[in-house]
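Long-time lurker, finally posting.

We've been working with L-ascorbate oxidase-like protein (Panicum virgatum) and I want a structural starting point before designing mutants. I don't trust myself to interpret raw outputs, so I'm hoping someone here can both generate the structure tokens and explain anything notable. Sequence follows.
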Amino acid sequence: MNMATTARVAAGVLLVLSALALQAGAEDPYLFFEWKVTYGTKTLLGAPQKVILINGEFPGPRINCSSNNNIVINVFNQLDQPLLFTWNGMQHRKNSWMDGLPGTQCPIAPNTNFTYKWQPKDQIGSFFYFPSVGMQRAAGGYGAITVVSRLLIPVPFDQPPPESDHVVLAGDWYTKDHEVMARLLDAGRTVGRPNGVLINGRGGKDLAAGPPVFTFEAGKTYRLRVCNTGIKASLNFRIQGHDMKLVEMDGSHTVQDMYDSLDVHVGHCFSVLVDADQKPGDYYLVASTRFIHDARSASAIIRYAGSSTPPSSNVPEPPAGWAWSLNQWRSFRWNLTASAARPNPQGSYHYGQINITRTIKLMVTRGYVDGKLRYGFNGVSHRDADTPLKLAEYFNVTDGVFSYNQMGDVPPAVNGPLHVIPNVITAEFRTFIEVVFENPEKSMDSFHLDGYAFFAVGMGPGKWSPELRKTYNLLDAVSRHTVQVYPRSWSAIMLTFDNAGMWNIRSNIWERHYLGEQLYMSVMSPARSLRDEYNMPDNALRCGKVVGLPLPPSYAPAR
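Top reply, 14 upvotes:
Generated this for you. Predicted structure of L-ascorbate oxidase-like protein:
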């Protein structure tokens, strides 16, 4: 090799190394969105009603991104009410400022705008967003978030990849206006049962007799991401004549078992693969309410390309009772060998070998305050403060806003009156905690924890006791963000509280959430370091007691 050739080779190697170095140090890609949030009129379930639209759409735009992308959404609130969006299942590492709950953020006032910026840091999977103020969630404004793996990180069902990746946003629906629903609850009444079920913003005859929601080509495989975006009812999801292979749940790859139907609880998402292996024709995709009287159902059409054959009227019925559903939950397993957002296997985290440092038992409490129905945990019913809890904590002005740890780790021995206060408890940073939800009610509940994924290790009928730990799955419980609790039953989760911030633990049954069945977990890093939590963003809205206050000192630089 002559000197000129050697020089060219050396220069080429240097360019490659430089490009790799730039790539390694480069910021993750940005995706920009602009949302105009308005009311509009849609005919749903045969009745025109007011719906929250985003850029004229219901459901709202799909956020389709890769792990670690920077998501920037400029929200223009053109409603006549304050507005916030929360990102169900997004962990917002070090960044509860963008969680979009009244306890973490001042609402976006009418005719103003606010820009959210967040990352699906080290996350993959299927999620959704929705408006979180009052009962706005019952008026729409929701949409899908789909996070795909970065290039070069293997996906356990991607050889070959599915032909298409579709979203199914299914949920119960009320024809009552969301402001009417809020007034009913404020008056101590209930919102009653849902009027029907929507699939991707359509229901009733408009859905069953309308154009197909998806078109399949015979011999191809399709990914369906299914989320329960409703406010009350669990759903059973099935496709006429087709089995489904479960591959992902709440951001975790699962063991790939086959199912003919799947229960999906409020706030919960999963992905299935469906083979178009039947005789070409039309087939019903069905979502039916579970565990409530006066069951409702919605049927959409999946059409094989070129088909003119209508679907069979023989639609499979949903399973009966919740014992079947509990047994199905026990069949779900974490895929220990699959990579998720990082190249290391999911199962490299051995949660079952970590010592529990604290147990918090949260029992659903129902009672009456001034003759009006309220819900809560352990005798405390949450109410939002005029100053968001996170802001009061950050500016050190919690006096007169809230007090920490007014609720105990166990339910009171004797049921007393409900205390209606901002409910904030603390967790020591990076401790491994067991949380047990106990639901003494006759109806289903579903719980979500912002900022985290947890391991749903056990559930069963009756009351929880420490002896039931021997029934826990300490090997391959699915890491997820939402867990159901069956009537008069319990569910147990485990997690490490390693994400500093102020995080909402809530019922997904929005009537109960509105009436106080929620709390906030304050997780503070003793180092007060930017390694553990970001400072308040420069564009953060201010309200309540923090208006006009000087900024607190910055957190210490990360080391």
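Before you design anything, note these points.
The mean pLDDT is 93.
Residues 3-25 form the longest helix (23 residues).
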